[in-house]
Amino acid sequence: MDAVREAHGRLREEIVAGRPEGVRRQHALGKRTARERLALLLDEGSFVEVDLYRRHLGTGMRLSSRPHTDGVVAGSGTVDGRRVFVYAQDFTVFGGSLGEAHAAKIHKVLDLAIATGSPIIALNDSGGARIQEGVMSLHGYGGIFRRVVAASGVVPQISVVLGPCAGGAAYSPALADFTFMVRGTAQMYLTGPDVVQAVNGERVTHDELGGAAVHGERSGVAAFVCDDEESCLEEVRYLLSLLPSNNLDRAPSAGPCGATEDLRPELARIVPVEPNRPYDVRLLVEELLDDGEFLEVHRDWARNVVCAFGRVDGETVGVVGNQPSVLAGVLDIPAAEKAARFVRFCDAFNIPLVTLVDVPGFLPGTEQEYGGIIRHGAKLLYAYCEATVPRVQVIVRKAYGGAYIVMDSRSIGTDLSFAWPTNEVAVMGADGAVNVLYRRELAAAADPAALRAELVAEYAEALMHPQYAAERGLVDDVIDPAETRAAVARGLAVLRDKRGEPPRRKHGNIPL
């Protein structure tokens, strides 16, 4: 028995250590190994591995070696004491390519996560499908995608791209709730530079085609972009600390901190009274949330809307806010998609929503209309209308036209609506309204400028005064800006036990 134990222990140590030349090559690329990454992500000593001895059964070309683990380290551990299931692709074994055995290990982890109601974290570093195993590689991907979709809205799913993620492999991050990428080492695309050049003659590098900057700023595939693996995995841990383990649990609470009585006079200084002057809504978010801490999602994509997680009086909330410092805070196609996806995630996992409104409307122009702004804007409308979580709207300054409706107005189901005393809620701004209503009169006037100023003042006084929406029950209270944090905290406390049952149906048909 001693001899058996010794042989078994030696084999286990060799598998865990990995091939020395492969480890050296990985480090030379500026990347950590799969096990080093898991050590950074998980609580010390918490990792329990499954299928350590798994090997492929393929007999195809150039498959003479049969290394253990088959290129993926899979199992379970804890993050801040909470159970998670993980898999980390091992680029030192077959370039992390996915074959039948590799996929089966991932299938097992996904099944266990769904069964136990635990978050799923995928660390991607793979060249894609294992060509030598043919269609079984594709079959393996299909099994992953089916399980990821089954887990959607049941447990949080986080995908971390730490190296190449090509071909079919790219759809796992695309289906995840949140995707992280590391600058300089992560690339994600369906067809690589060689194929692109062969098809259309375009010469492009791996990073130019699918690097972290591309997906963080242009495509919106990456929700978070980090400078290195260590900060990336630390950010994953922080995100998990704000999320529930599944759709039946509450997010971890930090305990009340007196937010219901917390006055913030700085808020009135952040937001200019003039409706067209820009400011950074993130400064408002800092004042609203506990300790000024928040985690912004898609920070560099669709920057005219801000989506962030934080806490109010110790409880996790999702914040959506128009960003007047970018495109004046208008809603366009990317902004509508970004906010809609965020709202739907919060609703799926019972995270209350706070919406900060300062929006002049939808972005006009042929590019937006031809691109389908009607359909894409309807995604955000659908997401809010469908949401049953506690919802609090704060009209900070202006809210015009259809964009007012879409930004969680009373008409589409917000539970509580507060407005600052400088708010303007109307079909459009006074200048635009006068130009439409009095076009002929202005053209015939001896002094058009004077008449326009008079009519603008008259329109604003009649239809845009701060109490107009409140008098009609569309705003619950007109509050001093300094009281915003306290009012939101009290509102969320009132709504904490809200329950909403959707109508009986298989599912709705969101305008995708």
UniProtKB/TrEMBL annotation:
<dbReference type="InterPro" id="IPR011762">
    <property type="entry name" value="COA_CT_N"/>
</dbReference>
<dbReference type="GO" id="GO:0016874">
    <property type="term" value="F:ligase activity"/>
</dbReference>
<dbReference type="InterPro" id="IPR029045">
    <property type="entry name" value="ClpP/crotonase-like_dom_sf"/>
</dbReference>
<feature type="domain" description="CoA carboxyltransferase N-terminal">
    <location>
        <begin position="1"/>
        <end position="255"/>
    </location>
</feature>
<dbReference type="Pfam" id="PF01039">
    <property type="entry name" value="Carboxyl_trans"/>
</dbReference>
<protein>
    <submittedName>
        <fullName>Acyl-CoA carboxylase subunit beta</fullName>
        <ecNumber>6.-.-.-</ecNumber>
    </submittedName>
</protein>
<keyword id="KW-0436">Ligase</keyword>
<dbReference type="InterPro" id="IPR034733">
    <property type="entry name" value="AcCoA_carboxyl_beta"/>
</dbReference>
<dbReference type="InterPro" id="IPR011763">
    <property type="entry name" value="COA_CT_C"/>
</dbReference>
<feature type="domain" description="CoA carboxyltransferase C-terminal">
    <location>
        <begin position="260"/>
        <end position="497"/>
    </location>
</feature>
<dbReference type="InterPro" id="IPR051047">
    <property type="entry name" value="AccD/PCCB"/>
</dbReference>
